[in-house]
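Handout, section B. The chain below has 512 residues.
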Amino acid sequence: MEKDNSKEVIDNTSLLDHPVHLDKAIEMVGFGCFHYYILFICGSLYTAVAFSVTSVSFIIPSAQCDFKMTSSHKGLLNGAMMIGMLVGSFIWGYVADTKGRRFTLIICMLMDGFFNILSSVSQVYPIFIFCRLLSGFGVSGSTTLFSYLVEFLNIKYREKFLSWMEMFWTSGIILLPCIAWVIIPQTFRIENEYILFKSWNLFVIMCSLPSITLAFLLMKMPESPKFLLAQGKHKETINCLKFVHRWNNNSNDKFPVTSIIMPSSNDKSNNGFFKGLYESTIDLFTSKFKIIAIVTCVIHFCATTSYYMLILWFPELMNRFRWYETYSNIQNKTTMCEIVSMYIVEPEVKDVKCDDHIDHSVYMNIMIIGIACIPTSLVVPLFISKLGLRFFTVLSFFGSSISAAWLYFITSSMENIILSSIFEAFSSIGISLTYCITVELFPTEYRGMAASIGTMFGKIGALLGNILIGIFIDAHCIVPIFVSSSFLIISAFLVITLPKAGRTNIITDGVI
C-alpha cells in the first residue's frame, strides 16, 4: 500500500520541470525494497559493531592466563578499544562530512576487521592491546551508519527505521555468546617456536569477518543523497535518486525530478585536514545548535560510561558468582560486592593453576541477557510514532538506573542474571535512541560531526568507566554501581531538556 501511494505521487508530478527540495524528491522516489535493504546493511553493520566491541568480554576470561592479566590489566584491555574509539570518533565525523558517509563506513569497517585479525595472532599483551586500540579507532566511525540510513528516508519513516537499529544490536548480543560457546571451549592448541594459537584466537577472527564482509557490500551502495547535495554535487544527487527509484519501483520508469534546489555552499574539503577538522568543530559549537551539541555530548558521556562500566564485566561477574557457589563453604548469603571481593582469595587447593575456563552457564546467561532485550527492541519501533523518541529514551535511562543500583543487593547468580538482563535491555536501547536523537536534531552539514563528537565523549566515559571498575571491583564495588546509576539518572533529565526531534533541523535551503 505504501509503495502504491508513492507511485501515485510520482504519476501526479511526472511533468515537473522546476527545482524541488531534496526532501520532496526523496518522497517521490517511493518507499520499498531499497529502503529495507539499506536497513539490513546498516543494521548488519550495527551487529558487526556489537561483535567487535563486546567480544572482549569473552576474551578477558579465556585469555587471562596467556597474558597473565590482573583485574587492572583486564580493565586496561577493556579500555584500549575505547581509547581508539575516543580518538577515531573525533576524526571520522569530519571525514564523514567531507568525504562521504559510505566512504567512511567502508574504511572504518575494513580497518576494524584487519586489526581484529591481527590481534588474533598477537602473542604478547602490549601488542594485543595496540591492535585492539586500532580496531577501536576504526570501528568508532561506524556511528556514521545512523546518518547514512536517515539521509535516504523521508520524515515519515525516520524514527521507526532508526529505532529498528536496536534490534540488530540485540541480535549481535545474542549471537556473540553462541559463537563463543561453540568456539572457545574447544581444546585445540597450535604451537611452535613463534606462535601459540588457541580457541579464543579463532573466536577473535570469527568476530572480525562480518566487518570485512559488510565493507565489500557497501561498495555496491550509493552515497547519501543529502551528503552529495550538501557538497554541491547536483548530478550525482539526481543519479542516486534515480537508482533508488528504479530499485523501489522495479522498473525503468523515468524519475520525474530533473533539478533540485541547491543549498548554500559549506564545503571545507579543500582545506587542509587538520584545519578543516578544527573549523568544523568550531562551526558546530558556535552555531545555533551549540547548546544542543553540548547537552547531547553530556548525555553520551553519562549513558555510555554507565553501560560499558557494567556490560563488559558481566561475564567476569558471572564467573565470580560461579566460583563462589562452587568453592565457597560460606552458607550465609552475602551481597555481590562481598562475593566479587572474595574471588581474589584462592580456593583451598594449594597447587591451583590459573583458570581460563569459562563455565557453560556464562554463555547461556549472556544469551538470556540478549534475549531479554527483544521485547523492548520490538515495542519501541511499534509505538515510537505515537510516543516519540524522548519518551522511550527517558524511560530507558530511568529503568536501567534502577536495575544498576539494585545490583548491590543481589545475593545469587540468578538475581544477577535477572538484573543484568533488565539493565542491558533498558540501557542499550537508551544509547541507541540517543544516537537517533542526535542525527534527528542536526542538519546535514553538522550531522556527522555532531554524532561523532557525541560518540567521542561517550568513549571518554567508557574508558574512564572501565578504569574505574578495574580499580574498585575487588575492594569497593559500590563505587562503580553508584556512579553507573547516578549517570543514567542525569542522562534521563538531560534528554527531557532537549527539543523534540525533527523541530530544529529544518533550514531555509530545504536540505536537512
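Note. The chain is about 70% helix and 0% strand. Compare this with the example in section A.
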